[in-house]
Amino acid sequence: MRYLLGIYIGGKLQRKIYLDEFPGFFEGVPITVGRRETNDICIPQNTVSRQHATIKYNRGDIELTDSGSLNKLSVNGKVYNKITLINGMQVVIGTGTSDPESVILLFVDKGAAPAEPTATAEKTQTRKKQAVNRQHSPKKEKSVIGRRLFASMADMVICLFMIIGLCGIIALIFGVRGKIKFFMAFSVMLCFWLYFALAESGSNGGTMGKNIFGIVVVDKEGNEIGFGKATVRLAAKFLSAFTLFLPVFGSGRCLHDVIAGTYVIRKKD
Questions:
Q1: How far is it, in rounded angstroms, from Cα 110 to Cα 19?
Q2: Residue 82: pLDDT band by 50, 70, 90 thresholds?
Q3: Cα distances (Å, whole numbers) of residue 257 to 139, 210, 218, 223
Q4: What is the DSSP pairing of strand 31-34 with strand 41-42?
Q5: What's residue 117's pLDDT?
Q6: Are residues 54 and 87 in the same domain?
Q7: Number of domains forming the structure of the chain
Q8: Looking at the domain assignment, is residue 188 inside a domain?
Q9: For the chain, how long is the longest CA-to-CA vector?
Q10: 3-state secondary structure the chain
């Protein structure tokens, strides 16, 4: 059997890829798809996450699995975490078919064709090692302690101006008295939470300070983190205060990184 994947961007065919030509494919070794150049199938589009999905041969089925991407996988407008590909299926991994930057994967089962290629044991083992190396790549990143320090200082200044502005607006509208003080304190905490959680779980992978100094927050596989993990990371910073926020837990990680399962690395793109 031959399995063809057509990559369409903006409605135009960009690449044709035969999945069965990847060493180890029929042994169930996953093929990675994403924006990052280290992926097996690199799609350098903004709507595609750094590692968006994996394609795997599983007992005769071809499975496309989301890797925690931002724009997810969708078929006919419905979002899926895992899809079993069938002949003629179109999977959107961009923001939508009408978006000029959307990416559509067209899967075609070519039917009976040349015999399934059998990868040598050496090639299969090499490919498995590469998959392991990709999975643990954040641990091998160079330390970004200096960048983290300056990024934190920048974020504190940004948050300070945001809080001053927010409190000033509340004071002008409601004054500063009684319950308004509690509302003001709540608004400050909400602003602080949303700034960090939304920014670190977004497509940029970090706050304004981190973007300025070229670093991002990722999980152990090098993927974008979700809103929940970003919230846990922020809450854990209260515990990191007892360690003076020192990145002393290996790979330049702070205590809140260890608790949330995150890494701070240099931005690749």
A1: 11
A2: very high
A3: 12, 15, 10, 14
A4: parallel
A5: 36
A6: yes
A7: 2
A8: no
A9: 80
A10: CCEEEEEEECCEEEEEEEHHHCCCHHHCCCEEEECCCCCCEECCCCCCCCCCEEEEEECCEEEEEECCCCCCEEECCEEECEEECCCCCEEECCCCCCCCCCEEEEEEECCCCCCCCCCCHHHHHHHHHHHHHHHCHHHHCCCCHHHHHHHHHHHHHHHHHHHHHHHHHHHHHHCCCCHHHHHHHHHHHHHHHHHHHHHHHCCCCCCHHHHHCCEEEEECCCCECCHHHHHHHHHCHHHHHHHCCCCCCCCCCCHHHHHHCEEEEECCC
Cα–Cα distances (Å) from 223 to 33, 127, 170, 227, in that order, read 12, 20, 38, 13
Residue 205 within a domain: yes
Determine the residue type at 170: I
- Per residue in 14-55, pLDDT (tens digit) is 999 999 999 889 989 999 999 999 999 999 988 899 999 999
pLDDT in tens, 204-224: 889 999 999 999 998 887 788
Q: What are phi and psi of 150, to 5 degrees?
A: -70, -35
This prediction has a pTM of: 0.49
CB 31 within 8 A of CB 62: no
Domain endpoint, select from 101, 135, 169? 135
- Residue-range definition of the domain harbouring residue 259: 140-161+198-266
Which tokens go with 249?
A: 């837990």
pLDDT in tens, 128-186: 445 444 444 566 555 678 899 999 999 999 999 998 998 889 888 888 777 888 888 89
Report yes or no on 210 lying in a domain.
yes
